[in-house]
Amino acid sequence: MFPHHREREQPIFSARAHVFQIDPTTKRNWIPASKHAVTVSFFYDANRNVYRIISVGGTKAIINCTVTPSMTFTKTSQKFGQWADSRANTVYGLGFATEQQLHQFLDKFKEVKDAARLAREKSQDKELANTALTIAAPQSPPVMCVNGPEDKLFRSQSADITLSSEKERIKKMLSEGSICEMNLEAELFTLQDSNSKLVAALHEANANVEQWKKQLVAYQEETERLRDQVSELETHGGHGPSDLLKDELTQSLEELEALLKAKDEEIHILQSKKADYHEMEHDRNEAMHRLREMEMRNSDLERRIQNTEQNLGNSLEDRDRMDTEIQRAIEILDIKIFDLNDLRQSLVKLIDK
After folding, report:
1. 12 close to 43: Cβ distance less than 8 angstroms
2. How far apart are CA 53 and CA 252, in angstroms?
3. 179 touches 301 (CB < 8 A)
4. Residues 287, 188: Cα–Cα separation, whole Å
């Protein structure tokens, strides 16, 4: 009986809106019926040929209004509209996010109102007959049917949390790999800069060495010539230079020898720099090798995170579809619960009569 009862009334249009009710005291101020936007749906009961506007917030019905031909939905502002329900002795107000949504609801209200008018003209007593036919109500509470979808919803949320944790973990790994790669690149750039400076210094030193070698050969030739002159002068005796000239030649010879020593030291320093250059080249090659390994690792991590994101997207799509189905089932079940409550009250009234 209950599945048949659930199938007889189906939603035909739904919209999201903020629900308000008129203040019963002042009849002027609006009282919010919901803290946030909720789903407001038109339902059609094929057996009773009745249209209803229903909105459920949490565990209670915010709107449970049967559409009658005398109702009128009035647009009072760009995104707000209202209608009066004489049975509930109240006025409902709906605030929409856009003007287009308001017009869609207004058009559907007019369409449902016309359908209700035609239904009333065809059969005035059909609703009462259908109420009598549904006296055999289900004995088991329909709330039990909700456990299954809620359980699925919890499992979906758990799977979502697990996938999110896995995604965050892989992103952290990729971030750490990127940091290592950046450090290696910075180290490599430093080594390349030092290498460039050393190469430039080495080229300059090589050029200076060639120049210094030429100067050294010239100094050696000049030294040998001066030594020959000194020896020749010492050999000729009386015809030799004075002591002042000897001192001057000796001083020039010492200066040349000191200059030769300094040039030898500079050549030794340049040779040691050349050894440092080879060591820097070795370090650069090692850094390049480590950088290539890090790039391969990052590529693997990127592939893994792409696969995880794809799986996560598929899981989220499945969860969204499941959530939609579950929400639809829960709304219908909640509505049917209120229907059973209404039916129970009607039966109590019938018994009292």
Report:
1. yes
2. 118
3. no
4. 6
Residue type, 286: E
Rounded-to-integer distance, Cα 278 and Cα 118, Å: 98
Q: Note down pLDDT in tens along the chain; length 353 residues.
A: 334 444 567 889 999 999 999 998 888 889 998 888 999 999 998 888 889 999 988 778 899 999 999 999 999 999 999 999 988 889 999 999 999 999 999 999 999 999 988 888 876 655 554 554 554 344 444 333 334 444 444 445 555 566 666 667 666 665 555 555 555 555 666 666 667 777 777 888 778 878 878 888 887 888 888 878 777 776 765 444 556 666 777 887 888 888 888 888 888 888 777 777 788 888 888 888 888 888 898 888 988 988 888 899 898 999 889 988 898 888 898 898 988 988 988 899 889 87
Instruction: Note the residue count of the chain.
Output: 353
